[in-house]
Write a structure and sequence with these properties.
Distance between the termini: 41 Å
Mean pLDDT: 80
Radius of gyration: 17 Å
Order of helices and strands: HHHHHHHHH
Low-confidence stretches: none
Structural class: mainly alpha
Helix content: over 70%
Number of helices: 9
Oligomer: single chain
């Protein structure tokens, strides 16, 4: 992958501050959808277990990552509430694709309030779902509840998984393949949804 998307390079260069900034950006900024959130947190947990680059205790890492994720979603919600109508009329650009916003909107309509927590585990969708929630004027307390739930489960869960699996020799010696597997599993729901959409399109009469 490009160097600026390589979790090892990002962590060795920017440390914990870089992790928190990327988590915040991927959670609520339009340009953050391509950032490596899952693999970054997994690698962060692994490096804490290994004592490389990151020397903070696991609980502190989980706490700060969860706060950054929740704060990012909060920003996305407020942004969508303020600029939602204009955003849906905005044409495609290099960084912004209406297709991504449409995916998040469909995800939000399908799962309702639960989508705020569920979207945490779906790349790209997790960036745009809080924006759609804000544009739809979702009740703020409901959004906040599921935002805290999803941000905590994702931030603590993926980081802790990396921490404990990182102590297994096979995982440490094959980290590149493990990261590729994490990315593959992360995009699997999107791939399944695309295949289902293609089948529906073929089944529809002309």
């Amino acid at each position: 992958m490009p160097q600026f998307l390589d979790p090892n390079w990002l962590i060795s260069t920017f440390g914990l501050a870089g992790i928190l900034a990327i988590v915040f950006a991927e959670s609520g900024l339009l340009f953050g959808f391509f950032l490596p959130g899952d693999s970054l947190l997994f690698t962060g947990g692994l490096l804490i277990a290994d004592g490389t680059y990151l020397h903070q205790p696991l609980w502190l890492m989980c706490l700060l990552v969860s706060i950054a994720a929740i704060a990012g979603d909060q920003f996305g919600y407020l942004f969508g509430r303020r600029f939602g109508p204009a955003l849906f009329r905005r044409p495609d650009s290099r960084l912004f694709k209406q297709e991504n916003l449409t995916k998040a909107q469909n995800f939000f309509q399908r799962y309702g309030a639960r989508s705020i927590a569920l979207a945490r585990f779906v790349p790209i969708v997790r960036t745009f779902t809080p924006i759609v929630a804000g544009a739809s004027h979702m009740h703020y307390r409901t959004f906040l509840l599921y935002n805290v739930l999803g941000g905590t489960l994702w931030g603590c869960g993926v980081t802790t998984l990396g921490y404990f699996l990182g102590q297994i020799p096979f995982v440490k010696n094959n980290i590149e393949f493990i990261l590729i597997g994490i990315v593959a599993v992360s995009v699997l729901p999107i791939g399944i949804e695309l295949l289902r959409a293609r089948r529906r399109d073929r089944a529809e009469p002309r």
